[in-house]
Amino acid sequence: MSKFPEPFLWGAAAAANQMEGAYDADGKGLSIMDVMTAGSKTVKRQMTESIEDGVYYPNHVAVDFYHHYKEDVALFAEMGFKCFRTSIAWSRIFPDGDELSPNPAGLQFYHDLFDECLKYGIQPVVTLSHYEMPLGLVKKYGGWRDRRVVDFFTRYCEAVFTAYKDKVKYWMTFNEMNALEFDTWRTAGIQIRPDENRMQVTYQAAHHQFVASAKAVLLGHKINPNFKIGCMTLFGRVYPETCNPLDVKAADDMMAGMLAFPDVQVRGEYPQRLLKQLDRQGVILQMEQGDLEILKKGTVDYIAFSYYNSLTQTGSRERAEKAKGNVVIGIVNSYLPSNEWGWQIDPMGLRLSMRYLYDRYQKPLFVVENGLGASDVLETDGSVHDPYRIDYLRRHIESLKAAICEDGIPTIGYTMWSCIDQVSSSTGEMKKRYGLIYVDRDDQGNGTLARTPKDSFYWYQHVIETNGEEL
Ligand code: BG6
To answer: Fewer C-beta neighbours within 10 Å, C or N terminus of the chain?
Structure first.
């Protein structure tokens, strides 16, 4: 095969909480991201107990996709998207998380959005929980610490699977679930107290999410046997800094840590290295009878993953400069350039990551995030020139093509991050823009919210038109 397969799901990705805004519209409850303040390159985002006067919460309005979705989907269609990956805000469907029945207005919003996509032949691809859960579940139950959240999540899945069973085929359960150890708030609504065993809390929550994910797969397949339900993993191949065996082992440990999550979701059992490690750290996982069987039966259909950067690790140097990147952090790789936020750029790493994932699991892959954050400028003539983004995407798509065409890796599609500018998840900034479409909104909440296609918009349109032949 020397060409991208047809059909190939070209598109782009986004997340409800970073894009929709309308944080309290039509019965929506607060989510964990609605109480996060704005941060920056140097200032960490904080969470507040509830909404405080005088504090700016960037996700409340975000880019107001909730009220602009028709205009935005029309622009996605103009680019020729075959799919649009978004998430459902759980707190629109179950505002507090533990209600017995869903909020009809919340369900209606996604009916309308998915219908709008389908009108143009764009398949919605849906993440069930993308760094978002109802704040009510955090207040009452402590987030994913509590086993009961598995049942609330299952109820939510049942509601959305049933509602959209004829509109959505590709689903994924938890966004970047393997980021849990590094960011317990965004992934699981948990703040670790100083007196707690961090690993105990983290992996107990992970166990709950594993069971919830497997149950979602089983339930989804029952509701519509044609559903394809995947895990969503943050991944970047980890390089040893040198061939010193200590470096190689450190790199291997780091990679095994990231892959322990898809290991459970793809193979249906805990990898023995993780169990040994947890044992050494004094972690005792509370499981219910039947859990292991659920994990075994509820394995995923495909592996979705995000790729922003590769990682480099040392086991032999004490003071190596830490890199910056997407959640999981290694050391600086002196061979690679970085973006404005210090994330290292490594197109070859995408191919190497795909090889590694496919060799390990032999399941179809779906590249559901890959993109460049930059402080784009809207020119006075209304244009936005982003040659650096085009260059980044071009080189990553070349690598994707090599993985598919030369290495023969079955791949469902590619949804770059992101279709439209939205609030950065880690920093809360608008300035860190990833979109193909510029949105007039700044870090203080000023701006008209007007949309402007960037140069990358037209470039990506041509890529899709030629099915990746002309980059
Ligand atoms: C991924 C997340 O980790 O990276 C997205 O799934 C996020 O939600 C993206 O936006 C880019 O990261 P950031 O922190 O720069 O927005």
So the answer is: N
Token pair recorded at residue 327: 């959640």
Q: Which residues line ligand 1 (CB under 6 A)?
A: 15, 18, 131, 175-176, 306, 326-327, 369, 373, 417, 424-427, 432
Q: Which residue in 93, 26, 95, 18 sits closest to 57, CA to CA?
A: 18
Distance CA 305, CA 370 (A): 9
Which residue is it, tokens 């975000």? 62
Catalytic one of 20, 116, 369, 429? 369
Read off the tokens for 83. 């799919």
Tell me which of 176, 181, 241, 429 is the catalytic residue: 176
pTM: 0.98
| Alpha-carbon span 70 to 86, nearest angstrom | 15
Distance CA 191, CA 176 (A): 18
Answer yes or no: 369 catalytic.
yes
Neighbours of 36 (CB within 10 A): 22
Q: Could you give the CA distance from residue 270 to residue 279 in angstroms, rounded to a whole number? A: 13
The whole-number average pLDDT for the span 54-78 is 98
Tokens 């983004």 — which residue? 389
Report pLDDT for 325: 83
Question: From the centroid of its chain, how far is CA 417?
Answer: 9
* Closest residue by CA, ligand 1 atom 14: 426
| DSSP H helical ranges for 263-332 | 272-280, 291-297
pLDDT digits (tens, 9 = 90+) for 139-191: 999 999 999 999 999 999 999 999 999 999 999 999 999 999 999 999 999 99
Taking residues 319-340, report their average pLDDT. 91
What does the pLDDT look like over 236-263, one tens digit per residue?
999 999 999 999 999 999 999 999 999 9
Q: Using CA atoms, how far apart are residues 39 and 115, in angstroms rounded to an integer?
A: 35
The C-alpha atoms of residue 452 and residue 461 are separated, in whole angstroms, by: 15
Nearest CA to ligand 1 atom 9: 425
pLDDT, tens only, 357-412:
999 999 999 999 999 999 999 999 999 999 999 999 999 999 999 999 999 999 99
How far apart, in whole angstroms, are the C-alpha atoms of residue 1 and residue 109? 41
Q: Cα separation of 183 and 467, whole Å?
A: 37
CATH 3.20.20.80 fits 9-465, yes or no: yes
Hunting for tokens 């179809």 — which residue is that? Answer: 364
Under 8 Å CB-to-CB from 138, ≥6 apart: which residues? 32, 189, 190
Confidence at 329, pLDDT banded by 50, 70, 90 = confident
Q: Which residue owns the Cα nearest ligand 1 atom 4?
A: 326
